[in-house]
Amino acid sequence: MAINLAGGGATVRKVRRARLIPLWALILGALVMALIGTSPHYAGTDSYVVGLIGKFLCFAIFALSVDLIWGFAGILSLGQAVYFGIGAYMVALSMKLNYTLENATRYGGNIPDFMEWNGLTEVPGFMAPLLSTPVAVALALAIPTLLAFIFGVITFKRHIYGVYCAVITLAEALILERFIVEYQAYTGGFNGITDYSNLRGAPFLWVIIAVTVVCFLGARVLTHSRIGTVLKSIRDNDVRAEFMGYNVANYRIFVFCISAFMAAGAGAMYAAWVGIVSFLDTGPLLSVEAVIWTAVGGRATIIGPFIGAFLIRGLEFVLSGLDIELAGRSIAEYWQIFMGALFIAVVLWIPDGIVGTIGNWVRKRGTGTLGQIREDQDRLAHDRQHDWDPAGATKPGEERV
Amino acid sequence: MLQQLFMQSLNGLGVAGILVIAAAGLAIIFGVAGVINMAHGQFIMVGAYVAAYVDSQGGSMFLAIPLAFIVVAILGLVVERGVIQWIYDRPLETLLATWGVGIIIEVIMKFIFGTLGQKVGWPDLLDGSIKIFARPPHFPYYRVFHVALAIAIMAVTFYIIYRTNFGLKVRAVRRNRSMAGCLGIDTAKIDMLIFMYGSGLAGIAGAVIAPIKAATIDMGFSYAVSSYMVIVLGGVGNLLGIPTGSFLIGEGETLLAFRYNTVIGQLLVFLAIVIAIRVFPRGIFGYQERR
Amino acid sequence: MAIKRRNFLRGSATAIGALTIGQAAPFYFARNIAKAQDGDTIKVGILHSLSGTIAIIETSLHNAELLAIEEINAAGGVNGKMIEPVIEDAQSLVQVFAEKAKKLLLNDKVTAVMGCYTSASRQSVLPVFEEYNGVLLYPTLYEAQECSKNVFYTGAVPNQQLDEFEPWIVANLGRKKCYMIGSNYIYPKETNREWKALLEISGAENMGEEYAPLGHTEFSTVLNNIANSGADYVFSTLVGDSIVAFYKQFKQSGFTAEDIPICTPITTEQETAAMGAENAVGHYTSFNYFQTVDSPENKSFVERYKAKYGANEVTNAVMEAAYFQTYFLAQGIAKSGTDADALIYEGLPGQEFNAPQGPVKIDEKNHHTHLWARIGKAREDGQFDIVWKSKERIRPDPWVDQLYPNKDCDFTNQSVLDRLKKPWSEEKNRSGTMDI
Fold first, then answer.
1. Which of A75, B206, C91, C174 is deepest in the core (most CB within 10 A)?
2. Which of B119, B128, B138 is nearest residue C276 as measured by Cβ atoms?
3. CATH no., domain C160-287
4. What pLDDT, on the 0 to 100 scale, is given for residue A1?
């Protein structure tokens, strides 16, 4: 099995020689974006479909941020919504503060209603900078990136990866969620932040599309650059990469920060577009869902997260309103069971995801490079976790379970 | 003030007991098979519903505990044979698959039992409290029971792992899977049995947690996350990691909740854990691989 | 060879998946088209969370509304037309509530929507209903301080549950030292604000106030504080799982209902069933409706609910509101037709119905509902003995007089109506709130 690892390098060289973006992909992508961008014209500006499309685009960027660290660098984060959510909350707070300055709340005051019913009489000083939109956007991007940097330094410098990293990030998301619900005077708590004038319609949709395109092109460039190659080598075998002289921890921190930056941007646009931010947008559920979008769409592919986010979210929206009786009850009451089955099916039968599997067919490569490498690498990680026992770590007589 | 502090640390002990019970199954599965079961919370929930069923039929909780163990162990067997056995090699993807398993279990349980919370009572034996001080709050018997059960579960697990032939094989697989396989140990079967045992423990956890509140569909998730934190802090290199991690988290959260508030308590404990893993990357009782 | 077989398996699995979706899609759309062409029904949206964390409560509201629709249709529908429920699952996500509300109004073109449970969900759909002029019937008791011409609130507001409750505790239980414990969000905070005003009026003491995180189930610390404060009763506004855990731990820690009773405007039969009646015995709840209300309407409601959803089910006040608001809607449509403006200004205001709790009426001025007040004492079978009942139904006051003496809502006032007639873009404040 290890033979294929040597082959991995050859593949990478081949890809690097290929065109960065094939012409057909460029045309197809432009067509899809044009179709999405003109949707307000044929679906109507008010249509919920337009609202959904803008939201899904933000989710697609968010999923791409997960794909960058998971698909291309082998870091599974189950708390990526932390960065998405902080970005979203910064922008939502800023918009809400500005909105209430001009439109009195139902209590008649000019500060957000959640501050009023918590006994605040004016906007607290540390929130004042958020009144300026550029500052708010800058903070929405900077704080998550900084947080990711700190988190990365703490964990990756100590070679905490794999399942441990996943579990810690999951707890991180859960705690931020609880924190936001608890400190409702500043965050809106359980009710979240709602009722501010969100940006709607074609102009902002084009902004989202532009950012989406930039993010996907950027990800393509990054993953096909030298850094991307190193990241993939780290993903496939971090010990070897380290022996080759690469500073594995720094590469991981770098890509983790890029990913958090991207997630924060997605969150910021999401808050501006949807007009509602709730504590669930920072929690474990959304984080895990983003991982699932990526897995279904295709891990380690650029377009996979996009397809996964649209497909799963779209499917959820349709299924949850599907009032067809099956087994005596409306499907809307138990549609989730299909989603659960889908996740299992994807993991068991199409581990490369939709895009990855199609790619494998096109290249007629059997299980495909990624599938093969991933299995090897995970098996290595698995074995190492269990077998690695450096001399002296276990003294005779000291049993370990 | 002193009385409160004393009661509070006793309560912390009770919380730690619950954590041990909830985390033991998860830690054993992770320690041996290398799989994190994201459906662990739902397994706990199923155990709670078994207890609720026994309660509604007039049975005692002491009957519910073994029954919950058996039912959830069988559930674990089904999940292991049906899903996990194919993906042991891909630990990260087992997270996703078991997440899907969790969703399915939730929907099925909702179908069977409806959405109402189900009542689970205490046996009369545990109804009441130790009156340490003259006025309430007293220390409830069920907290004593949680701590005692936690100790019992750890003792039984120690015995199985260190004193039985099966345990010897488990340790062999844990130490070196391929070598154990070469020596004729059926590693797949060991994985399966351990998964069943760990799942069964989750069932017990549900059966004894439910009487504190009620059996509800979404009760398991927060306990599952606490269990993950126990594993991260305690480590799975040694069984002692489970009680150690549980004790630190349980006491830490309870005492800090007393001093500040619950959320700050949880936040501080989380930060402490993140800092602790700088020192113990594999948990306090983990394999210390590289330095 | 093995690889080929695996390829084949994967290929066929994907193909089957594609086929299933391919078959389901036309079916789905065909069904929707059939619905749209069918002009003989009145479409009513039902928007509750059937999955996610809040589904546990909202499913029962969904059930109660479907039961009422079934009954109305069985009795011949409204003006000869059947009511057709359009069911949506909002997944306990506030954004989904807003999206689904938009879909129901703009795509399904429903006459009205019944739905939402939490304040968070109502606030998220409120702008949608105001902008697209829809009608929402909202069944939950809530913290009030809100009026919207597009929303009809059929649950209780604080003045209907609290104003009589506090003096009753002082007079009948003789207790004047109150400890307040609530879940940490808007409803308990606002309710406790009013409760404190009531305490002050009757000269009772506030011994402490504490908020537990939502979903919190470890109350040892809180119990410690209650014992320390010297309070002689507890006013609880805990919600959800916390209720059950609090009552149980309260009893286990050695407190009794005789020493320190828990008084609450929230705990219903659902929670007493979940905690085991022995943990609730002797504690008090103030509500508009209990399953034990002795009226023929209630008996038949409980009977039919159990017949449809199972003998173990219990009914409670929020479900009852969900049930009778469906009748409000049917009567409103019968009166004024399905046009939204007609419903808002003619059909629904002033509508009366003989509900399980007694005759109820929608207030013309503020779109809330006149409800009865009752105080129940939990007994050993998990039901409540009604120990006090208001002599007449109580007028809802969204801006309670103790806190907002100069505020009220009035949708019959001409100046408010003139303001509301302006287009949405010019006047975003659809609230009927005015200073008087």
1. B206
2. B119
3. 3.40.50.2300
4. 35
